[in-house]
Design a protein that fits this description.
The chain is an alpha+beta fold and 184 residues long. The chain folds into 2 domains: 49 residues, no CATH class; 126 residues, no CATH class. The chain contains 5 helices and 8 strands. The strands form 3 sheets. Strands 2-4-3 form a 3-stranded antiparallel sheet. Strands 5-6-7 form a 3-stranded antiparallel sheet. A hairpin with a 7-residue loop joins β5 and β6. The longest helix has 18 residues. The protein is globular and about 60 Å long. About 4% of the residues have low confidence.
Length: 184
């Protein structure tokens, strides 16, 4: 699973370099130096996958009430702020403060959280358990959208249910609306 994620992120990094019109010869001068750089990038990606995200407070309307929206509008809202919706992994990392657990290996009491690899195949991103979750503040009484579309149903998007710490998915076009928090 990690190798699939690493492969995808490596492709993403290479694509980013291509998009900026950067040539490999400008980044590394030889095959060996490129492999060293790839190793460093992969190591950094492993670290970044587990960095606690900084989330904004939930969006509020003029009266200070939670501003709710569908997943597509939530994503646009965050982009308009120069931010992004958190990934489901980022929300799971935050949920660890509430007692949730994340694992890269299957274990009793853990549910698989899926993604799609670069070939579009369904793969496990991580395993998640909310059995020991205790909400810490009122901000978690809501559910929040993530950026990750559920790979089994491309129209579905994962969301995080703050009260129980559960991760589930919903069909954005079916009228589901939740408050939005953005990732910095």
């Amino acid at each position: 699973m990690k190798s699939r994620v690493m492969g995808f992120l490596t492709v993403l990094t290479v694509s980013s370099l291509m998009a900026t019109n950067t040539k490999a010869s400008e980044v590394c001068k030889s095959l060996n130096s490129c492999r060293v750089l790839q190793s460093k990038v992969e190591a950094r990606i492993k670290v970044l996958l587990n960095v606690m995200p900084q989330l904004t407070d939930y969006a509020r309307d003029a009266d200070g009430e939670a501003l709710v929206m569908n997943q597509h509008d939530a994503e646009k809202y965050c982009l308009d702020q120069g931010l992004s919706l958190p990934t489901i992994r980022q929300l799971a990392l935050v949920a660890q403060k509430m007692g949730a657990k994340i694992s890269d290996k299957a274990a009793d009491g853990y549910s698989p959280i899926y993604t799609a690899n670069s070939a579009g195949e369904r793969v496990v991103d991580f395993y998640y358990s909310n059995s020991d979750v205790t909400p810490r503040s009122d901000v978690w009484r809501f559910s929040y959208w993530s950026t990750r579309f559920h790979s089994v149903n491309s129209d579905g998007a994962y969301f995080f249910f703050g009260v129980t710490g559960a991760i589930d998915f919903a069909l954005p076009n079916f009228g589901f609306t939740f408050p939005v928090r953005c990732a910095r």
